[in-house]
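S1.2 Input.
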Amino acid sequence: MEERWDVPDVVVIGAGIVGAACAYYAARAGLDVAVVDRGPVAGGTTGAGEGNILVSDKEPGPELELALLSNRLWRELAASGPEEDDRPAASGGAGGRLPGAGAGGGFEFESKGGLVVAETARAMESLVDLAARQGVEHVTVTPDRLRAYEPHLAGGLAGGVFYPQDAQVQPALAAAKLIRRGAERFGRGALTLRTGVTVTGFVRAGDRVTGVRTDRGDISAGAVVNAAGTWGGEVAALAGTHVPVLPRRGFILVTEPLEEPLIRHKVYTAAYVTAVASDSAGLETSAVVEGTPAGPVLIGASRERAGFDRTVSPAVLGRLAAQAVALFPALAERRAIRAYCGFRPYCPDHLPVIGRDPRAPGLYHACGHEGAGIGLAPATGHLLAQALAGLRPDLDLTPFRPDRFDEEERP
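S1.3 Output.
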């Protein structure tokens, strides 16, 4: 049965963390926003994420610039009270960091820092080189100082690099909180959420996108934002445009809650940086280990392009467990109580798709963030809201333009 809809300025397709951030910042910019999702809030990739907010794994370039802006915006969101949160964000770089962990503005934000460790002297050289090229705040950690950062870390490592700006949030909570804040803080009707609504096509006036078609009726709007995550390519195809977003599956192991914290920071090996940048469709695993405020330890990370197959792989989970125990031998005495998988929205050039689509006026994209969507969400929403409001974005969106793949041969 078709329903009557108000006419918002913007329809955001997707209630994951990126869609929530787009809606929040658009509402803060004074736009009326409707968020639609065929499932619940954070029901896709966001709900299967670890909540990473990283600068440590980014090569110098546009994604690192996006990450630094987003890192500052996350800290503003986590630190703000009701009045402070309504202030427009300033332009600029990374800003300072918050000491310790806390309620984090309702996001379970933890400014824990990230420790990247090297198992060989050659890997250590690569880590030091990357940190120097990034130009972000970091500390080179010699082998004899590693246990000052992580007392339970295994011996025999060649050193590491500590990044104090790395942080973590609870991703599903963060997405829900952003939508709630947008609905409550910027005026009645500024942000509305409708779940259980499937987008089936687009409404057009000539070449221009003027809304979406759904299984619950058409919604007219001044602009439409494709924040459909792993399904962003399918949504783009409904508008007749090409955005090559593919699913990249990953598994996470969760331990029983620990009474005493075992791991202080986010800890991962140098191999993780290589895996993030890899184009391989095959299975890759690298140790990523971190605690949570509730007590369980999260263990990753695996990557493979296996479509949307959710079949649990005991072999992959075994590799993750073994790699985690190699880093933290004390984990061998802890039980894994569950495992889950999600699908990272992978783009071939490892950059997200952000901005206006010139091939379909009125359509904007905010998808393809791969495994960095949690960390990059605020900057994505902030920049896209500026573009929607007719302002010049704080960062150049050219590297992320939606039509950059048109020159490539389509599959």
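S1.4 Remarks. The first strand starts at residue 10 and ends at 13.
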